[in-house]
Write the structure tokens for this entry.
Amino acid sequence: MQLDRLSSFPVTAFDAAGELALGPYREHLRQQIDAGPAAIFACCGTGEFFSLTLDEYAAAVRAAVEETAGALPVFAGTGYGTALAKQYAAAAQEAGADGLLVLPPYLIKPSQQGLLDHFRALAASTSLPLIAYQRDNAVFTPDSVAELARIPSVQGFKDGIGDLDLLQRMMAVAPDLTYFNGLPTAEVTARSYAAIGVKAYSSAVHCFAPEIAHAYEAGLDELLPEFYLPLVKLRDKGAGYAVSLVKAAVRRRGVDVGPVRSPLTDPLPEHLDELDQIIEQGLTVVRKANA
């Protein structure tokens, strides 16, 4: 699994009536692919996996596979309980995905044994490689990660809790896994993760400003105070803004990917004005650096 830099987590487009809109979605995908991420992660958190029907999910994953045309690997999200996760995994495999990001199970907080059973059952149901996503109600112990690594198809581990001490202990017992920084606005912590050897991360900013995302990845640290920290401050002003603010930014930069689906809500008008200012600040930094 050669993913050692930022990956794109595209949004899923809906029309004004809230229906899946594959035309704008494909346009958004093409922009993401052309910008050159390590991989496309379709229908994951930023892509509102939790709001998609199985048919919509299959159509969106298939569109991502078709648009990449083998140029980049396509990973699809899967989640909920084990029975539903297996159905989504089967749909992703049939659509041509290259792997699965296994999102935390729905609602309940499982035991370590329950998490391992979930992954073993999912691995037995598909030939696709699996990436475990640690966040919320799916937090592993180092011993459990060692057991995960013994499942041949589990090849990656995405961390969304930010405990670097815990992560280093996991890396010590399961060094062959590919590790990812999966915190919201991962660029803010990217340098800290890189210091312990974790260079890969998910970039929501890549969805709407790939030029900013790649400039920061290349070392333009001025973007941290001028763009990323103000963006995080704005993100924290609204529930669900880690998704809805990103989707609004994609719209404001020219691709009509539509609104978020409930129970998410779109950002307030005054927050959209602030978003425009932050994006312009980031683009200004990049333009000056390239002048």
In short: The mean pLDDT is 96. The longest helix spans residues 269-290. The two ends are 36 Å apart (CA to CA).
